[in-house]
Amino acid sequence: MEDVARLTIPGSGLQLVADVVGPANAPTLLFLHGSGQTRQSWGTALKQAAQRGYRAISLDLRGHGDSDWSPDGKYTLDSFAADVRQAIDYMGGEPIIVGASLGGIVGLLIAAAQSPPMRALVLVDITPRVEMSGAKEVSAFMDSAPNGFGSVEEAADAVSAYLPHRQRPKDTSGLKRNLRLRDGRYYWHWDPAMLHMGRDAESKIGGPNPLETAARALQLPTLLIRGGRSRIVSEAGVREFREMVPHAEFVDISDAHHMVAGDANDAFNDAVFTFVDKQTSTRQAV
Fold first, then answer.
1. Higher pLDDT, 105 or 164
2. Domain, as residue range, for 59
3. pTM
4. Is residue 71 part of a domain?
5. Which of 144, 178, 189, 264 has the smallest count of CB within 10 Å of its CB?
6. Gap between the Cα atoms of 45 and 201, Å rounded
7. Is residue 121 one of the residues assigned to a domain?
8. 21-to-26, 252, 262 alpha-carbon distances in Å
């Protein structure tokens, strides 16, 4: 893979960090990770994008990875979306946003706005209807080690217990990218204050669903990719989304769980780039 450039990009009142590959004048893909992940979750997708001649950008959302934490300790969907809009404005162009989970929600909110600064949207295992049992499992894992870990191996054991369907890697050194060493202990890379976002969202269930409103406003080309074994997006959630967004395309990757790109990378990349190639060839032909 060609050299990856690390960029510091202004968000909404803070600094974000991104990895960028590919020529500056090529069609752009903007990858947004899920809650508790980092820009490095998209390593293989960035490699594929570069090989296909795209410009690919993988961004750490606020409170994640190397990006700044929220100065006020608050994490709202509007603040995440404002960051990404600011980043797009700074980098220029109209990207195709590929967003997993939280990143998909952010992409959905931006795509549904009037005159969205993007050309298409790929939602990875996220719809307006989130199965709360699965969401609670994610939150429980993120909140399971408030005092950190004594070693990288201990953190790897926690990940293996959370993702039993994946083979535990023999070399756990790569996990260090997702950990921060403080006072002799290893902590996950995210801001613990971010966990309040999920609790606040759960307390508001029953009111108007802003994600459903956003989905019904979508006009851009859209692809929904679901992990067939997902506990976050159900078949009912997919049906509801396709009723809200009749023009959306849909791919079900049967062997994948919620983290689709990590569980079935080849099938995921095939789905994404089949859609992306079609959008870019259509734009070039106009």
1. 105
2. 5-131+191-285
3. 0.92
4. yes
5. 144
6. 30
7. yes
8. 10, 28, 20
The CATH number of the domain holding residue 273 is 3.40.50.1820
Among 205, 3, 37, 6, residue whose Cα is nearest residue 106: 37
42 three-class SS: helix
Asked whether residue 218 is assigned to any structural domain, the reply reads yes
What's residue 87's pLDDT? 96
Tally of structural domains, the chain: 1
Residue 105 to residue 194: CA distance in whole angstroms: 15
Could you tell me which of 205, 181, 180, 182 has the C-alpha nearest to residue 190?
Answer: 180
Q: Is 184 helix (H, G, I), strand (E, B) or coil?
A: coil
Query: What distance in Å separates the CA atoms of residue 123 and residue 59, rounded to the nearest whole number?
Result: 16
CA dist 199 and 163 (Å) reads: 23
Q: Is the model's pLDDT at 204 over the cut of 70?
A: no
Let me know if residue 220 belongs to a domain.
yes
What mean pLDDT do residues 161-182 have? Answer: 84
